[in-house]
Amino acid sequence: MTDLWQNSMDHAVAAARRAGQVVQQALQDDRKVMTKSSSVDLVTQTDQRVEQLIIQSVKEKFPTHRFIGEESVAAGEPCVLTDDPTWIIDPIDGTTNFVHAFPFVAVSIGFSVNKQVEFGVVYSCLEDKMFTARRGRGAFCNGEPLQVSHQTDIKQSIIATEFGSSRDPEAVDKIFSSLRNVLCIPIHGVRGAGTAAVNMCLVASGCVEAYYETGIHVWDVAAGSLIVSEAGGVLMDTEGGEVDLMSRRIVAANNRTIAERIIREIDPFSPTRDDAPSKSSQ
Ligand SMILES: Nc1ncnc2c1ncn2[C@@H]1O[C@H](CO)[C@@H](O)[C@H]1OP(=O)(O)O
Ligand SMILES: [Mg+2]
Ligand SMILES: [Mg+2]
């Protein structure tokens, strides 16, 4: 059977690799840092340049496809997922890492049709790891198949999470209380690569049992969500139930037992949805 979206996926892999080269090159240069929603929500010219490079190359090849790109949304483009083929792009996931040369920086490209992610590509460019997944066909890193951890005992687990970009004390309190509860189960440890996409690839690779976060955006997790599920993992909302990629809440785990155990410890909150009507950027 021919794969309807294979051409698009091949293009995404090539575009992510090219984008990664631009990111790596830019690490040698001075990085001019600007801010977006707050003084800790960073963006550089490289984020904007890489996003434009990817979008232009896709437009030339697939002129009818739509886009949700982090930096385009920040510039006022709508963030709406329709049934049309849509490229969901985070040109640099881990901009704070990029600015500080902390070595986990990823290009994340998800592709959805009928609101379902068909393929995901995460290129962790400093590690030179190309993570790919095609719906129903497994997840891979540099061509090698990925499999989540088999662990079902939360006390034998490592959990990944992040502190996010909100410095609103109420939100930070919720993040800390959840983290305290999870850590004191007790678990073996807490980790965070500084990029949601890489954290999800760590779940898919079996290096951590789960990743959870509130405050992420659809471009942070669209590609990673398919990489996790195709590696045998599960995705849930932080209050349980199905994940909604526009809700800014996610639990990605190796299995349901681990996901549900973490969810019991999470103090949930709901940031403004990515597709909220009045929202032009955040
Ligand atoms: N100060 C900050 N610390 C950590 N993550 C931040 C952040 N500001 C923005 N983020 C974004 O939040 C995501 C989840 O933590 C990260 O993958 C990162 O995506 P970004 O680099 O594409 O903005
Ligand atoms: Mg991001
Ligand atoms: Mg980004």
UniProtKB/TrEMBL annotation:
It catalyses: 1D-myo-inositol 3-phosphate + H2O = myo-inositol + phosphate; D-glucose 6-phosphate + H2O = D-glucose + phosphate; alpha-D-glucose 1-phosphate + H2O = D-glucose + phosphate; 1D-myo-inositol 6-phosphate + H2O = myo-inositol + phosphate. Its EC number is 3.1.3.25. It is found in: Cytoplasm. One of its GO terms (molecular function) is inositol monophosphate 1-phosphatase activity. It is an enzyme of class 3 (hydrolase). Keywords: Cytoplasm, Hydrolase, Lithium, Magnesium, Metal-binding. Mg(2+) 2 binds at residues 90, 93, 220. It comes from the Eukaryota. Its cofactor is Mg(2+). Mg(2+) 1 binds at residues 70, 92. Pathway: Polyol metabolism; myo-inositol biosynthesis; myo-inositol from D-glucose 6-phosphate: step 2/2. It holds the Pfam family Inositol_P. One of its GO terms (cellular component) is cytoplasm. InterPro entries: IMPase, Inositol_monoP_metal-BS, Inositol_monoPase_Li-sen, Inositol_monophosphatase-like, Inositol_monophosphatase_CS. GO terms for biological process: inositol biosynthetic process; phosphatidylinositol phosphate biosynthetic process; signal transduction. Homodimer. Belongs to the inositol monophosphatase superfamily. This is Inositol-1-monophosphatase. It comes from Sparus aurata. The lineage of its organism: Eukaryota, Metazoa, Chordata, Craniata, Vertebrata. The gene is IMPA1.
